[in-house]
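Name: FAD/NAD(P)-binding oxidoreductase
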Amino acid sequence: MTERPHLAVVGAGPAGLAGALAAAADGVRVTLLDAAEQAGGQFYRQPAAALGARRPQALHHQWRTWERLRDALDRHVGAGRVAHLADHHVWCVEGDSGAFTVYALRGPAQERGVAVSADAVLLATGGYERVLPFPGWTLPGVVTAGGAQAMLKGGLVLPGRTAVVAGTGPLLLPVATTLAAAGARVAALVESADPRALPRRAAALAAQPGKLAEGAWYAGQLLRHGVRTLTRHTVVEAHGTDRLEAVTVAALGRDGHPKTGGTRRIPCDTLAIGHGMLPHTDLAETLGCTLSGTDVRVDDEQRTDVPGVWAAGEATGIGGAALALAEGHIAGRSIAARLHGTAPDPRRWAAAARARTRSREFFAALDTLYSPPGGWPDLITDDTVVCRCEEITAGQVRTAVGTLGATDPRTVKLLTRAGMGWCQGRMCGPAVAGLAGCAFTPGRRPFARPVPLGVLAELPGQEPDGSAPAVADRH
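Structure predicted for FAD/NAD(P)-binding oxidoreductase:
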């Protein structure tokens, strides 16, 4: 009896779930690896069962979609078609067409290695928040917008009693409304974008009436909870001694710089701030996949240019859960067909392809609207810490550029150590690039996360037949 082809899916968010379910339904054996204890990713993040949440759906929209995904996953796991490896932190994928090995660290301590062999790989690694520093951003009480959302969804914990939600992008709306609904007083929603630019993108936005209705609902919730909205404003400083006590926001001119005299101080104990998302591309780059800007490049089937590797969701471009679900479904269908040795039939994913097109056009329009204010690097004082891991200030970065001749983030890193710390530049990378006056580009790394030396020491050399070595456990 011929063994069923095996697919490894990295990431159990909307894209990974959709891909795993589609492939399993078409007769592929799937191993789904995810760092979280429960499937769902950030969008469908669930509180731990021990917390006894009585109404977890109150923290989510599209709850019925999540229930369908969860129930389908449970059915496939019960039938042995999908193996769900939760709390598995993937640090590397290697191989080529038909023979891949996914390496992961297992458990909260991440001290034991696991290797999964597969015939194909779907990268559904999601995205992470773009962090831009400003004076006072290292104070306790300053968190990312997604971090505040994760605390509430996953831990049922409010980050504070009085919050300011600030930055730019669609994520700010659900964060502000969810915090307010959970009992926090949201003193202000501070958005740097200009809503007057919306009419110029009316055609692309009108193609997604559901998204517009969702935005209108959020606006209504803000009014209901008395949340003041300040558009064309930005946070220029956070104040406090031992923790956050207030923020100063400034009105922005057309050039993206603060207007003279247009500042106000808002007392708060929490600042949830975000300036959009960036794709997680570490694993794709290690495999040699080509990027388009910051996104993994894929074709109409969600295939990368590395045979046997597909990508879907935020890794191919930030676009939200609906786009991730569509891309994951397309990828799963394509993978199943090709692993079975048949030509994929695009008619099987025609509805998902139409949804993908509409969503991509919608978010392309939003990208031109929601971008950090053009003058943000000028708001960073020289004594502001930019790289928290290595405690490198903006002044040191400016010295590397202006005095020592650095022209790119890599040279700044060599001269200052900015980006050499635990996060390997994931957090400070955009800020360093902005201060250096160049575009941010992802840095290629052999490992997607820190790996204990003991795990690396257990890796034997390449086998004589070219196969990958075993690491502690093999699935």
